Amino acid sequence: MLVGVCTKPFTRRVALSKRGFIGPIGDDLPSLVPLVISLLLFFSIFTLTLDTYNSKNFFINKQIEMTSAAREIKGDSLILNIDQFMKKCRTVSGKNFPYNFMVGIYGADSDLRTTVTDLLSLQDNGPDPNNPILSASLAGSMQNYFCVYKHIGARPFSQNAKTTYLLRYYPVAVQQAITRTVNGATVTEYLVIPGVMAMVVWE
Amino acid sequence: MISGRLHMNQRGQAALVDSLFFIAIVATICTGLFYFAVNYGLGTENLLNSFYSADFAMDSLKVITYINVMRDGSAVIVGNPSSSSLSSLSSTPTPGGSKEYDYLLALIKEDFSKNRKLGTQTKIAIANTLYSVLKPFDDSVDYAFYISRESTVQGSSTYLALILSTHKFYRYEVINGRNTPIVRRVFYSCEPTNNKALEKNVFPYVGQIDSALGKITLGTGLGNTSPYIIGLHVWVSKKVGILQDPTNAASELGCTVLNPLSPTLPDICDLEPCPNGSP
Question: Which domain holds residue B15?
């Protein structure tokens, strides 16, 4: 009796299982689809997050380095002469600054919409007294308040390049020499004028 | 896993439910990762931007105190030595032999020493200096510059000078077929009736303000000096009701317009009545 009770349902169950069995793939395929989708989703989001994390860290680091370099170059916001400006630029680049940078000083009457073009022009063509970036005499020749630092092997900055760059402006005072005629005698005087230091940092 | 003994025949469906649970867990994790990716670094970036803004205000204040202006306060020299302003400075003969220039702070100290007040000419020199220093950012910022006594006396005004500069909206005009707002920068010299005039009438309405403060000493003679605070507050320009007309008699700011008194400040005489004889 007991045997009969136990055996009958067992045989029936086996029969039912056989009826529902499609095959190893057929049975598991419906569950494999969500599994594959979820794995794809996970790895996509994980990659995206990692990329975002890295790029944001890189961007933040670039901003920090730029802020500290700009602070060092402008000092107390008073640029006494072009020699001092160039020395400060060399000091920053001599510390193995991790990015490439260009710095130029404009007069306060300048149009800053052409900053990148002006800096590029000086980078490519050298000093130009007609460039809106201020100029002064250094070692007997007119030089612009402009300096550029590039890593060894770094490509020149190009406005059309896909590289992202940071551009910031800092108000500075610049001491400029002027020649005046006072009581018939020619004298060189110094006056302090307002300016704007533009800094571009790129990778 | 879920199926019991009675449902051994439903193997496929059980695995499907398992996978749905799995996708739910993965979706939760992905949401968390996405949230992290979107928000990561925002605080640091805001902090860096605020460092930059604070540096900007402090640099501007320093430059204001460093630069030279014409002795009559009429203009600030800008540009290359070859530019017209410096050329005229070096070549134009004047009755005194040459045009004179000086530090703005020297003008302020000299004027203060006469009667412990600042005259209109000095205020115009300050306005010209502010305009020159912040001209590259003229489209985007408004600002207030003040010199005030370092005093804790309640109620009475401690301002020696308060120069407020805002963009004033006048009207719309059709230019090239487009409805264009006519907006000009207007400089005001204010004489507030109490020492919290800026805090009460301006700061609550203009959003984030970047401030820089410094200390100077003004006096009327040897041993008769007092400490004064110079401050510059810069904010992103926006249309604020109270700043549309700070000359309003009801305003605690008590401002008068400076623009018509100086040819180097933006001309507004085509937009509002100006005193006779103004440039």
Answer: 11-39
**Can you name the residues that pair with B189 across neighbouring β-strands?**
B163, B256
Alpha-carbon span B138 to B174, nearest angstrom: 23
Structure tokens at A111: 């149009």
Residue B272 maps to a domain: no
Nearest to B98 among A28, A48, A182 (CB): A182
Same domain, B35 and B60: no
Instruction: Quote ipTM for the complex.
Output: 0.80
- Alpha-carbon distance of A76 to B233, in angstroms, equals 19
Inter-chain touch B36–A35, beta carbons under 8 Å: no
Q: Do A173 and B98 touch (CB under 8 A)?
A: no
Distance CA B49, CA B236 (A): 14
Interchain contact A45–B (C-beta under 8 A) = yes
The answer to whether B148 and B224 are in contact (CB under 8 A) is no
Q: pTM of the full predicted structure?
A: 0.81
Q: Which residue of A has its CA nearest to B103?
A: A192
Q: Tell me: do B155 and B242 sit in the same domain.
A: yes
**A54 has a chain B CB within 8 A of its CB:** no
Q: What distances in angstroms separate CA B69 from CA A95, A143, B38, B132, one per listed residue?
A: 38, 25, 49, 10
Where is pLDDT greater, at B264 or B164? Answer: B164
Whether residues B105 and B223 fall in one domain:
yes
